[in-house]
Structures are given as C-alpha cells and as structure tokens.
Design brief:
- This protein is α+β, with helices and mostly antiparallel strands and 703 residues long.
- α3 packs across α13 and α7 packs across α8.
- One of its GO terms (molecular function) is serine-type endopeptidase activity.
Length: 703
C-alpha cells in the first residue's frame, strides 16, 4: 500500500523547533538504548507538578517554541475553530442541571449558570422547592488559571459539605469542609489528597487518602473536625508501591471500606463507620490475579469476584460479621461471555450491570425470592449507566441511557412495580433530529480471525462511496470499554460529511474479560493490529479511504496512535495523539515515576523480566520511530500531567521529526497550565476539541 499524496500544502511554511541533543544510554538485559532527548525530563519534575513556574528555563523555552510552531501552522484555522466552538457550545444547555437525587429531607444535584465553566452544587427540599447553592465552582475558580473540583459529599446530618479542588492540574487535591448553615469553610484544610473523603457515622470527621511525593495514595487517615491535620490518625499504610488505594463508605453508613488494588489483584479492609479508632480488618488477603469488590447488603456483603476461575465474574455473599473468603457463598454463578460489571445493593433488591454480546444490560433481583428481570431497550447499540441512589432502603434506583443518535436520558426505575419514569432527556438547544443520522455496528476481521466491533455514526446524506473522511477513535487498555454513547461534539464532524467510528479493540472488555486479556502484556500487539484491521475494513466496505482516515486516541489510546503510526503509516491520513503514553519502555523501567509499579501488571515489568522488556520494546512508540513516511501527526499534552508526563510526547515529536521521511508536519501543542484531563472548564475543553476537529478537517482537505 502506498501513501496518497500528502496534504502538506494545507499548512503554511514554518520551521519546527530543533532541540538540542544530549545522548544518554541505558542497558538492560544486555540491550543498550540511546536517547538524545532524555534532558527534556526536568530533574525537579515532582516540584514542577506542584508549581509549574519551577520548570527549567531551557525546557520551558523548547516547549514554548513548540507551541509557537503549532500556532503558526494552525493560524489559518482560527475562523474554523471559532465556528466549531460555537456549534459545540450551541449544543450545550448552558444553564443545565442534573435531576436532584433524594436523601432524607433534601434532594441534591449540580448545575451550571449561563456562561459558567464550573458546576455549582445545590439542594432542594426532598419533594421540590427553592434551590440552595452549597458550592459555586465558578466563584471558587476566580483568579485561577486552572481549577478543577474533586469529590463533593454532604454529611449524613446534612450540616456540612466535604469538597476538594486542584488548582494546578497535577491532581494533588486540597480538602475543605463547608458549614452549610453559615456557608463558610471551616479552618480544616488538608493538601495533597486523592480528591475525596468519606464521613464517619457521627459526621464529626472523615477518612481520606494522602498522596506521597510520587503521587501514590499510600496512606489512609482520619481527620477529626477542628483538629490540626498533623494530628490526623493513620488508619492504614500501603507499603507496596505497586498498589493503588482508595477509601469509600456505604449508603447505610455502616462501614468504611479501604480498597487496595493493581490492575489484576485486589484486597479490602473494613472498619465500622461509627468507630474511627478501630483497626481495619482484612476481608481476603491479596492473591495475584484474584479480584473482588464489596457492596453493602445489610447483614451481608455482595462480592463481585473472579474467584475460582470466574473470568467474566460472579456474585457471592458473605456475612458482615465475618466476611473472610472461607465464608463466601455463590449467589449469581459465572457465565462465560456474560461480563458482570458492577453491583448495587438495596434493602430488598440487588441490581447488576452486565455486558453480553457486546451490549450492556441491567438486571434486577428481588432478594427474598431470587426472582430476576431485565430492563429492556429497543435500539441496536446503546450505552447504560447505573446512577444508583443515595438511599439504601428504597424501591427506586436511577439509571442513564443513550446511543450514538439518542441524547442521554435519565430514568428513575421502581424495582417493585417495574415502572420507569423518564426524568430528563439531554437538551440540544441548537436542535437535534435523530432521523438525520445513522448508527451502525460493523465487525472487522482481525488477522487471527477475531471479529472486532466498530460503532459508526454518519449523516444520512453522506455518500458511502469511499470518499468520506473518517475519524477513527480507539483506546484498548485497562479493560476500559468505550460506550456507544451520545456525543454532541462529534456532530460537528458528522455534519461536515465525516464518518465517526469507534474501534472496540482488544484490551477493552467490549466482548468480555477475555477481550481484555487478549490485549495486554504479551498479547498487546492485538490492540494495534485490531485497530489497523478496523481501518482497513472501513476502506474495504467503502466508508472511506486510507488517506481520509484521521486516527485519534488519548493516554493509553495515545500509545495506540504511536504504535499504529509506526506499524501502518500508509493506512492513515492523519493521527491525533492526546496526552500520549509513547515512551512506554523508559517509563516502565523507572520505578520512581508516579504510576510505574502499579502499571506492571498491565504492561509487564521490564526491569525484572527480559521477556517483558522484549515485548514492550517491540511496540513502544518512541523506541520504534523509523525512517518512514508518516502521515501528519498532532500530539497534545499538559505540563502538570502526573499520568503521562509531558516529556514523553515532547521526546516523541522530536524523534519523529528527526527520523521521518516525507514532508508531513508533526505538531505538538502543550497546555502549560493543565494536566492529564486538559483544560478544566467545560467551555475551555470545547476550545481544545475545536482545535482537534479543525486539524482533522485540515488534513483531510475539508477545512
């Protein structure tokens, strides 16, 4: 396959930055690598996450030169970006609000004001009435270049609000407590937390995780209101750097649950919510490959687990008095091909969200009789989410529904009467007619015979003769499934003749847990070859041409973009890699980086294993850049990103420019005031999407 003529004429003439070279080498398992651009990693990167002004001047100058270069090449798209932004903003109800959820005497929700960037949190009387604003995100964000709210949780007595914020983009959240009578924050302020907390049963203190210098949630503390944070009681410390940790509660407010996990193993410790001085008790000791989650059930816990070879998970129960593994009893058996995703427990019901034949479904079980029923839906492909309830003793639970053509809908569902009540349908102020669009599900044949699902959305008037441009999105890691959900933003491409496609490649759980296992560690190559197979299938079915396909992915999906660029550059007309994890081997060889040890179960440990080293080296995008005719490439990053550090895409872009043949440009846009999630405001984020879409239109000749 040969590349179609490059659209380099679409970009103005400008010279990219030429970074310095300072060779650094490392040797592992007898293999030596050389890296000319390792200097782009700041020696004080941990301090930079907390204070970006501390970035080394030489690195800052290079990043600013990259921004100047991309701005020069994209200058001609300013009007288009403005139009795209206006379209996408016009599809958002600016003063939108959630449907308040009942809890005791109140109902709690969130809303936006007209033109507001940040959410406001409010409550009303339980059965309706005037809104009381509890927290105004726009007000809290005033004067800050970056601001993101974390967890917001009201106390059980409804008198206080625990809330968190990050004003650097580095995901070090500060916890505050607001008195809801006065509307003022208490003196209690705790920095460097994971972004949320859990009230104890007496509402006189809360549990939270503290992040260490490597951004790992390694300790759980209890803070008594009014006390100094230095006096907070250490509840549990996780000494293994390979495990994440979180703390949560139950809706009945009986238990505090400390969850400890990596990507394949989990462990829980429990303590009574009414006794913060208690020592947490172990449920089941961590055992490599054993996963389990706990959900409240009154005198029992529901346990979602893969124990005993239940690859697609089963549900067990255990008495709260002694929930050790020896006391687990099977409730919902394992069924191959039916992946149980989550469980919600209520006083008289249990609800599970599962995926079968590539589609989600909700199953309600009456606890006394064991009778089960499904909540049915009509469309061919759709997305479901369980919103649950604040309350445990209730017959009503909430769920959300959407498809690629149907705007999001919120339902309350009575588990006894089986009546569903539509509470809200996502409003598209500028108008949306589902009849104008077509959604389809294709199956692309992979090289080994597997069939890879593709979700498609296009306008009814789009000619399917191979001439349409296509944006092909993919992720394919951590078992994350990309839902076939409604997305108002992509309509700006679809209305301009694009086919919008999602490749459900291996590495996600789209076709069960085995689909995930077949796209990780030694089988990671399947993720990349699946994506390439999807591109080729779309061309074979005359939805598009290779030079008309713009591939897009972020984070681990950005790694996917880097891999397919090396493996099949001729198959794509452009590539967009957001916060791309592209220097995989170097990062997995550095145990000091924030997320490296917990990532080894996903990718392999190249420090300890020569086989893992060889596997990662075979696909790591930075290590496999070669003298190839790459398509136009756009990389985006955030300076304070602790998940994919800024120097990964910075180095990748430099090496691409150095080694590539052909004249297609490589652009790098870095937000100097944000992290992994990009801009924090809802409209600021739309500006970033407008930039990406303008790029896609430009490289396909549609700008």
């Amino acid at each position: 396959m040969t590349r179609a003529p490059a659209l380099t004429s679409a970009f103005p003439a400008a010279s990219p930055p030429i970074p310095e070279k300072h060779p650094v080498s490392d040797t592992h398992h007898g293999v030596t690598r050389n890296d000319d651009y390792a200097w782009m990693r700041a020696d004080n990167w941990q301090a930079v996450f907390r204070d970006p002004s501390l970035l080394d001047g030489r690195i800052r100058a290079h990043l600013e030169a990259e921004n100047a270069y991309q701005a020069a090449l994209m200058a001609g798209t300013a009007d288009l970006r403005g139009k795209l932004f206006a379209e996408m903003k016009g599809r958002i109800k600016e003063d939108d609000s959630t449907v308040p959820m009942k809890d005791g005497p109140f109902a709690y929700g969130s809303s936006f004001r007209q033109g507001g960037e940040q959410p406001r949190y409010f409550r009303t009387p339980r059965d309706g009435g005037a809104e009381e604003i509890l927290l105004d995100g726009d007000k809290e964000a005033e004067g800050k270049a970056y601001f993101r709210l974390g967890g917001v949780d009201h106390s059980g007595d409804h008198r206080q609000l625990l809330w968190a914020f990050d004003d650097k983009g580095s995901e070090f959240f500060t916890l505050r407590v607001r008195d809801l009578t006065s509307g003022k924050d208490l003196a209690d302020q705790i920095p460097d937390t994971g972004g949320g907390g859990v009230w104890d049963a007496g509402d006189d203190g809360f549990f939270y995780t503290r992040l260490d210098d490597n951004h790992r949630p390694s300790k759980v503390f209890f803070h008594a209101l009014g006390d100094r944070s230095e006096n907070d009681r250490l509840i549990y410390e996780e000494t293994d750097p390979g495990f994440f940790m979180d703390v949560s509660g139950t809706r009945a407010n009986d238990w505090i649950m400390i969850g400890i996990n990596d990507h394949e193993t989990s462990e829980y410790r429990l303590l009574p919510a009414n006794d913060p001085s208690a020592e947490p008790k172990l449920v089941a000791v961590r055992e490599t490959g054993l996963q389990y989650d706990l959900e409240e059930g009154g005198d029992i816990f529901f346990i979602l687990t893969n124990a005993d070879g239940a690859k697609d998970f089963k549900i067990m129960t255990a008495p709260v008095a002694n929930p050790v593994r020896a006391n687990w009893q099977e409730l919902v058996p394992h069924e191959h091909g039916r992946l149980i995703l989550s469980v919600l427990g209520f006083k008289h019901y249990m609800v599970r969200l599962e995926r079968k034949d590539g589609l989600p479904r909700i199953v309600v079980r009456e606890r006394a009789s064991g009778e089960e029923h499904f909540i049915s839906f009509d469309e061919e492909a759709f997305s479901l989410g369980l919103s649950g309830s604040y309350e445990y003793d209730t017959e009503v639970m909430r769920f959300t529904y959407s498809s690629m053509t149907t705007p999001a809908q919120v339902f309350d569902y009575n588990m006894r009467s089986r009546e569903r009540v539509l509470l809200k349908t996502q409003e598209v102020p500028s108008g949306h007619d589902p009849e104008h669009y077509v959604t389809r599900r294709l199956m692309a044949p992979a090289a080994d015979g597997e069939l890879v699902p593709i979700s498609l959305l296009y306008h009814r008037e789009t000619q399917l003769d191979g001439s349409a441009p296509c944006l092909l999105y993919g992720y394919g890691s951590y078992g994350i499934t990309v839902p076939s959900a409604f997305n108002t933003n992509c309509l700006s491409l679809v209305d301009r003749g694009f086919v919008y496609a999602v490749a459900h490649v291996r590495g996600g759980k789209d076709k069960g847990y085995g689909w995930y296992e077949d796209g990780k560690r030694a089988k990671k190559m399947n993720t990349f070859t699946d994506f390439i197979a999807c591109a080729r299938h779309l061309v074979a079915e005359r939805y598009t041409r290779h030079d008309r396909i713009v591939a897009q992915g972020g984070s681990a999906g950005g790694m996917l973009m880097g891999a397919i660029a090396n493996m099949a550059p001729e198959s794509f007309g452009g590539i967009v890699a957001e916060v791309p994890f592209v220097d995989v081997l170097t990062t997995m060889l550095d145990a000091s980086l924030p997320l490296t040890p917990p990532e080894w179960p996903e990718w392999g440990n190249p420090i300890a294993s020569a086989a893992d080293y060889e596997t990662i080296a075979a696909y790591s995008p930075y290590d496999n850049v070669a003298a190839l005719d790459y398509p136009p490439i756009l990389a985006l990053a955030g300076l304070t990103d602790p998940r994919v550090t800024y120097w990964e895409p910075a180095k990748w872009v430099a090496r691409l420019r150095e080694r590539k043949t052909g004249g297609n440009p490589v652009l790098f846009k870095i937000n100097m005031e944000s992290g992994h999630a990009g801009a924090s405001g809802r409209f600021s984020r739309l500006e970033e999407i407008a930039y990406i879409y303008a790029y896609a239109l430009k490289v396909t000749g549609k700008a």
